[in-house]
Amino acid sequence: MSTYTMHQNDKRTSVSLATMEFEENDGKTTLTVTEHGAFFDGLDRPEWREQGTNALLDALANSL
Questions:
Q1: CB 30 within 8 A of CB 49
Q2: What is the pLDDT of residues 20-54, one digit of tens each?
């Protein structure tokens, strides 16, 4: 579980709580990410967060 805030300059744009669950199934691992967020003033959006998280996970997969 992790919590974090995102900022644009000095303005807070969002606050999140994310959990990550790893589950083994037939010799493979499934990762489930659940994120709860509060988004302020339209400066951040859930779909942007999902896009960024997917990009980070793709980079991790490529490095493995």
A1: no
A2: 999 999 999 999 999 999 999 888 888 988 998 89
Single-letter residue type at 16? S
Say how far apart CA 44 and CA 6 lie, in whole Å.
9
* Three-class SS state of 16: strand
Q: Which helix (H) or strand (E) holds 62?
A: helix 46-63
Please report the DSSP string for 33-49 in residue order: EEEEEEE-TTSS-HHHH
Check the CA dihedral 59-40-18-47 and report its sign: negative
